[in-house]
Specification:
Lysozyme; Membrane-bound Lytic Murein Transglycosylase D, Chain A; two-stranded antiparallel ribbon; disordered N terminus
Length: 437
Amino acid sequence: MVKMTKLPAHMANQSRLFAAALCVSIVIGAVGSGAAEPLSQPAPADAQAAFAPDGPGFDVPACDLPLGSLGERHVSDGSSVVPAADGGASDGWADAYAEGSRISYVAITAQAYPVALNPQVQFFLDRFTGTSRDVVTLWVNRSARYLTRAREVFRMHGLPEELAFTAMIESGFKPDAVSRVGAKGMWQFMAATARRYGLRVDRWVDERLDPERSTVAAAAYLRDLYNLFGSWPLAQAAYNAGEVKVARAISKTGSRDFWTLAQSRYLRRETKEFVPQIHAVTMIGREPDRYGFEFDDLEPASAETITVPPSTDLRRLAGNAGLSVATVRALNPTLVRGVTPPGRTWTLRVPVGERERVVAALAPRRATVVATSGRNELTRAMASGDVHVVRSRDTVSGIARRYGVSVDDVMRWNRLESQDRIRPGDRLRVAHSTTDR
């Protein structure tokens, strides 16, 4: 019997990419060799001719501009990696650069990002600078905290920095965007794709909501797609529709030119519009003054880090430290349940200058959960075994049943309200104290 050995994450990712490349090469092999697309394309007679009809009476779409609605990308699952860091001031983007070493980058010499000014692109350029200017202004304003750093990520990995504008069409640079099919974050990753590119996605943590780490993953994904298709428009189309759908369109049309594929029926309307929209906002980004926009550059929110125990409730911690719950949640967007994962400590981001207050709030170790008339009473209760330490899956009713007391007693002794939740590590009184008798 042959013993199977699990590949390291980076080797597994390379194997998946190789398998995908092999499948796509089989599908499109008959098309012939092709390099990157030419810098300009023959323009159709008008904008309506740019897209093939999806059905009777097709017109140039008066589309609703996306604010976090993206196409699905169905890919295979992969393993996740848990980040670990601690201490001092935190620079999320610097951490993300370091985390990028988790991903295996295939060496390529990426061509400069070509923008085609054809009727398809001109249609969206006119719309973005005209009737939809207010929406695009919102995207531009929101990009102030992310665009500059995102461009640095792409440059750092040898990719055209204009690829950062993909996120403007993906989500309008909204880091907590959620699409109708479950894609999340600024880069609108489906869960399986995110795991494949080193992001942790589970019931406790969703790194798709981390602008820094998701940008590093998006750079890796787009680089792999470029390696697969040899063209940035095709890579971006595959980012939206999936590799297999683009390969099928290439096979059916016999062309490796996106603008030709966009005139066929083999790509969805959403994908046909996705690439020219990116080209339009890229043109605006290159010459914002010409189009009447102003791109600011804001520093990301500053934070310090602190190690907290497993299953730390951010709401309780913020309350005990006198901090805004919203602020603490905003600094830790990946904690989707508002609680750090069980089983291990977690590096939490807190506002600059507030670290000592958080340390002080952690020191009592939830002693405030136990309602007693004084510290001596709590000590006697613990010594006599009259305190229960909450474990995973414990409930108030289950604890009451175990100790032969009523639920009302447990609630009263511990001053719990009906809406209060108990967490692993909480200490609850489970017997009468002398002052209760």
